[in-house]
Specification:
five-stranded mixed beta sheet; Nucleotidyltransferase, domain 5; binds magnesium ion; 2 domains; 10 helices; 326 residues; globular
């Protein structure tokens, strides 16, 4: 069985093709990045996706060396995400499904990150820390749903890092440069640490950080900002593990690329005698492979999406989906 999956929740338009064993036959993508790096303009990103969709699909089919005869279904990110961007993926998926007469499966983008992560790292029943540009959630499977134990109540942690990076002229994406700076910072500067119950907030930390630009050494400031934000994430992840008794942590999303965050989470897991997992970078960032893998899992468990129910769901939550596959 082979599935073609389409990702288009934000700046990435990706096509993944996987088989039943989760062999990645193709993982092609293109990302919209504005030259002056002022973030994502949703309509412009959608236009970019429309322009490039055909080319990315063709590249993926060529790379996988499969024809439409061999593909069994089409999956797409149904939500959550930016409406304009999601719509490109949904329209593309419906069109391909109708032209080639293949079943359609709409999937939740966040759950797709978890499922591809579990499959590729062999984590069985982890607490997932999903840390990306728009999303920051601590998730675990309990009673048939991926429950959100804690999440950001304002901005995503990746967004927080990007905005601060822009303020100190690092360009987009700022994450990799900031990660290098983290390890050269020497002095810890006290900054607001905001954990409310199990939820997190980053906007106060961002404001405090901005106010200290030019007053503090830049490397010390980046180190302190990241150390504070990552400590918050680590604290909530650890509490979710303690509460559920789960012995595995899966770190995914674009921010999982950060060596600073990995180091902190790894240390926490070591102290708890828990296992720590990070999937390969190409599936931590947004990609079509995660969508095709979850689509295939759902399809094998009898789930398809009717055309009449294939509308995008920009606000869909991780815990809205009943998990009927294993
Ligand atoms: Mg994502």
């Amino acid at each position: 069985m082979i599935c073609l999956g389409i990702e288009s929740t934000a700046h990435t338009f990706g096509i993944g093709i996987v088989n039943e064993k989760c062999k990645i036959l193709a993982n092609e993508k293109i990302s919209y990045v504005k030259k002056d790096s002022v973030g994502i303009h949703p309509r412009e990103a959608a236009d970019f996706h429309y322009k490039n969709a055909k080319k990315v699909i063709q590249n993926a089919l060529e790379k996988a060396d499969v024809s439409w005869k061999e593909i069994d279904l089409v999956a797409f990110s149904q939500g959550p995400g930016l409406g304009n961007c999601l719509r490109v993926g949904a329209v593309t998926a419906r069109t391909l499904s109708l032209i080639h007469n293949k079943p359609l499966v709409g999937v939740n983008h966040c759950i797709a990150h978890i499922e591809i992560g579990r499959k590729l790292t062999k984590a069985k029943d982890p607490i997932t820390c999903y840390a990306s540009g728009a999303n920051t959630q601590i998730i675990g499977l309990e009673q048939g749903r991926y429950r959100v134990f804690g999440e950001t109540i304002d901005i995503g942690i990746g967004n927080f890092l990007d905005v601060f990076g822009r303020e100190i002229h690092l360009g987009f994406p700022a994450g990799p440069k900031m990660d290098e700076m983290y390890f050269t910072g020497k002095k810890f500067i006290e900054l607001p640490y905001t954990v409310k119950g199990m939820d997190l907030a980053f906007s106060g930390l961002l404001t405090a950080g901005k106010q200290k630009i030019k007053k503090e050494n830049e490397k010390d400031l980046v180190y302190s900002l990241m150390h504070t934000a990552f400590s918050m994430l680590t604290e909530v992840s650890e509490r979710a593990m303690a509460h559920t008794g789960k012995k595995e942590l899966l770190l995914t999303g674009g921010v999982a690329s950060s060596n600073a965050l990995r180091k902190m989470m790894k240390e926490m897991c070591k102290q708890r005698k828990a296992k720590f997992f990070v999937p390969p970078r190409e599936v931590c960032v947004d990609n079509g492979t995660q969508i095709s893998w979850l689509g295939l899992l759902m399809f094998k468990n009898g789930i398809t999406t009717k055309l009449s129910e294939s509308q995008i769901r920009p606000k869909e939550r991780t815990d809205q989906i009943q998990i009927t596959w294993t």
